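seq as requested:
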Amino acid sequence: MALEVSGSKTPLETVGDFLVVFYHEEPDEILAATGALAQMTIDLNWQSEIAKALKQLLATPLPDGTLTALVQEKANRFVRDDAQARDFLLRVFANNNLASALDEDH
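struct tokens:
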């Protein structure tokens, strides 16, 4: 299942949609990333959009609890706080090789 590339969504919405599609029902992070990577090889623009949105989300100051709620609700993962949520999102970034999508934009 692919996500549509849309410039009208916020980074929080874009990342949330991504997490729902690939992580919410799949408890194994590697299997979730494998599914996402398979889709991203088909649509490199989508990979770039996810990479940019996740990078921007992690760099933006957010109200306390925002990342926790995102990961709990959209990825269906238990995290105690924003620090654990950030760690999860950093693993998502790494496991999906999103740094390469940012490198290709240069």
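DSSP finds six helices and no strands in the chain.
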